[in-house]
Specification:
Blueprint: H1 2-5, H2 10-19, H3 32-42, E1 56-57, H4 59-66, H5 70-78, E2 95-96, H6 103-110
Antiparallel strand pairs: 1-2
Helix pairs in contact: 2-3, 4-5
Protein name: Helix-turn-helix domain-containing protein
InterPro entries: HTH_17 (IPR041657)
Domain Helix-turn-helix: 56-100
Length: 130
């Protein structure tokens, strides 16, 4: 929770913890208020959207910056073209804004209408030139 608190709101943290199937200490589901209580007791600073410096982006923010869809960003992450970090498995991806400027990412986004595949020299063509 400590690493998520600086980057996400209490609502997003609660949704992520619930999606992961992690209950509270009393076996209840997470709410924004319960996340706030844990942060207050543990002395964890809250997320401040006004202070967000743009170093880390959500998948939606990255898609908007690239001028593409969240689905395309997800494919780029899955294929390893776009580096992304997850605090814990199944948590939302965090994308460093500087990584959007990588040449591999730019070229993959420029290939509109085609899948984001890694080009492999050993790959055989589906149809031969006959």
């Amino acid at each position: 929770m400590r690493s998520m608190a600086g980057r996400w709101s209490d609502e997003h943290i609660a949704a992520t913890l619930n999606r992961m199937g992690l209950p509270t200490g009393q076996g209840k589901t997470w709410t924004a208020h319960r996340v706030y209580s844990v942060r207050r007791v543990r002395g964890i600073d809250a997320y401040r959207s006004a202070v967000k410096d743009g170093e880390w982006l959500t998948m939606t923010e990255a898609a908007k910056a690239l001028g593409t869809s969240s689905h395309t960003v997800r494919l780029l992450i899955k294929t390893g073209v776009l580096p992304a970090v997850q605090v814990v498995p199944r948590a939302p991806h965090q994308i460093r804004s500087a990584d959007l400027m990588l040449e591999a990412v730019k070229s993959a986004v420029a290939r509109k209408g085609r899948p984001c595949r890694v080009v492999d020299a050993d790959m055989l063509p589906m149809f031969t030139d006959t």
